[in-house]
Amino acid sequence: MIIELGHFALALALVVALVQSTVPLIGAQRNNASLMAVARTSALMQLVLILGAFGALMHAYITSDFSVIGVYENSHTTKPLIYKISGVWGNHEGSLLLWVSILALFGGGVAAFGTNLPPALRARALAVQGMISVGFVAFILFTSNPFLRITPTPAEGQGLNPLLQDPGLAFHPPMLYAGYVGFSMAFSFAVAALIEGRVDAAWARWVRPWTLAAWTFLTMGIGLGSWWAYYTLGWGGWWAWDPVENASFIPWLTGTALLHSAIVVEKREALKSWTILLAIITFSLSLLGTFLVRSGALTSVHSFAADPTRGVFILMLLGLAIGGSLTLYAIRAPHLQGGGLFAPISREGGLLINNLLLSTAAATVLLGTLYPLFTEVLSANKITVGPPYFDAVFIPLMVPLVLLIGIGPRLAWKRGDIAGALARVKFAGAATLAMLALSLVINGTRTTDIAGACGLAIAAYLAVASISEWIDRVRLTKSGAWTRIANLPRAAHGMTVAHLGMAVLIAGVSGATAWRQERIQTMAQGQTVEMAGYTMTFNGVKMVQGPNYAAGRADITVSRAGKTIATLLPELRTYDQPPQQTTFTSIHTTFYADLYAALGEPQGADGAFVTRFFYVPFVPFLWYGVLLMGLGGLISLSDRRLRVGAPQRAAAAMPLAQAAE
Amino acid sequence: MKRWPYILPLVAVLALGGIFAKRMVDIENGTDPSLIPTVLLDTPIPAFDLPPLPNRGEALRSEDLKGQVSLVNFWGSWCIACVSEHPALLAIAKEGDVPIHGVAWRDDPNKSLAWLAQRGDPYATVGQDPDSKTAIAFGVVAAPETFLVDKQGVIRYKQTGPITAADWKNKIKPLIAELKKK
What we know:
The complex is a heterodimer of chains A (661) and B (182).
Chain A (H helix, E strand, L loop, with lengths): L1 H29 L2 H30 L6 H6 L6 H6 L5 H22 L5 H25 L23 H30 L4 H33 L9 H26 L3 H24 L12 H25 L14 H33 L7 H21 L10 H7 L1 H18 L3 H28 L6 H7 L2 H25 L2 E7 L4 E4 L2 E12 L3 E12 L2 E6 L2 E5 L5 E4 L1 E4 L3 E11 L4 E10 L1 H19 L2 H4 L18
Antiparallel strand pairs in A: 1-10, 2-3, 3-4, 4-5, 4-6, 6-7, 8-9, 9-10
Chain B lengths: L3 H25 L20 E2 L9 E2 L8 E6 L4 H16 L4 E6 L3 H11 L5 E5 L3 H6 L6 E5 L5 E6 L4 H17 L1
Parallel strand pairs in B: 3-4, 4-5
Antiparallel strand pairs in B: 1-2, 3-6, 6-7
């Protein structure tokens, strides 16, 4: 019964979305307030209906209602509650429902909190959101319905893939989707602005919190995915340039560019049509990220089952959303009023180069991801593009970007002083050289050591440059610094924290790549292995019983200079349903390094086992870096100017001259 | 006013959409390269001679496959789907119907060895294919892919993506029984 209610709510949501996507547009065109007000009501109604549908599906999973096909295929009564819940989005149909639920949350957010928006802009933006909603709710109802039943009701479900029964992966999709879908707000505002024919500072300020929230979610989502890969797959690796990973990383790159170019629109009214284009492209790439891997057009190692009918539907949806918005862009963007001029060396100039580097990086990753598809379609040749390509093209783009992050915030708007800015990053320059020398002395001078040292040096540069810029800005050494810190806009603090996060992340990537150590061996009870100054003692394997699995659990003592530091308990698990074996790694984290143990197969009859140990220095910095970047986003999101009523639009802003047809 | 720069994004996306659409049509018509059984179906396997993993058995040679029905599985320690396929391969190896030969594709031999040590080793022989020469000769798109080769060294079936217990029971095992009779 509850399932049918959910199904019905979703169908009703489609009707409401149809209303939301048309009536407010007519209202905005005719300047009819009551028609425009429909946008708000219908967005809130949609939120209630779609959350109702989502709740109904979740209820089916929690109560293990196996008469629902999706529940039967992906759940099991003995599964712990958290994985019953995460099982809702652990499959194609449910994850789409999660996607539209988040879309409805963002739409409802604008409806509820967007009271300071001009009614016409709000009506149009929500109408565009309504169109997206129509497309995807229809997609769910017609091709991927999660509410379908089977008879007779099976007694037990088939269980969730054990690889997905993991806390990191339970929360990875909602975070990632919140990021992807969050960019739909920037998209809707961009399309609304194109319809209106006006982009100004106020517009940029209204869009900013939504973009910032989406960016923060996406950052955390990608970080969670990477963390999961790191501790589950057992290679001490965290990024493999797999199509699915790239699909989330490309919108992150353009979203980061968007975040920065919108600042130029807000402060200087420049780069308008570029910012609009970025908003459209970022969401388009998010759509590509969510859906292309499901269409079968792109082969991925961990995609959902491909289904051509869905693929055609998806392609039509993408074509309508992206093609439609870009057609509108081609017609309207040439008429957008240009804004302030600026010298090449200026804050705007720096942000423009930042945008160029980020978009080029996004384009190269996109090219590498889609290239195999192009060659296959066009020439029937098969090729693969692997990490060497991505490393070779990506790193040279990132190094100048990082150097720029250190200098950019010190350049003045409109016309900057490069000599002055360079003079003020001299501490950072000194830190770079000091770190380079220090690392070479401590770690040696093999090729990998030099690469690692360069990475650490760049990280030191960025960290010192970011912190010293903040210190100079609040004049920390002069009296009254506390007041200045308190009065500095939160966005400025957020920027420093996020840039610092980037520095920490670079240190993590460099160190963990350069100095990872690994030992693999067969160990009998009592044997020891030395690695990076630590001694690992193997104390044998015990059988333990989990909620829905049985496991062999090894007991490994880690000691250093005779003192016990930690006990690692890696497991080899065999799940009951589906009967699959997985490894469960055990990690001990010191402040700057991970000691990581994995248990392999038994060898012989005398209780010997294969064991793998890793020593991965700096890898915690990766996660600290991601957390800092996310924190930076949150701090910036709390900025007063985003909450307090947005400024009135300049009365003089010229309405668009009727587009020459 | 210059209009063309504003039209460029649309043109680029339309071109991209065209490519995706062609791929979809290919899939509909059953000519998609990754979904069709492979153009190599019913043709002899390409010649190869792959070095073994360090201290692990013999080299993997195309010549050696002749004389008995066998499976050739392309895999890599970097491959996530291979992790999910692995229990099925172990089960097949345990049944003992057919030897499974592994091709460690684009992989560091030490990582391949470690992976097998950790997750179990279903392979009769494993050959290394670090520069994809053999993978390309077989037309492999993405790991894992598995080829069923008959006694004459002719490819009789290709599995794109992980072999599941159901695939084994319903498709591959019956086919092997049939090929063994010939």
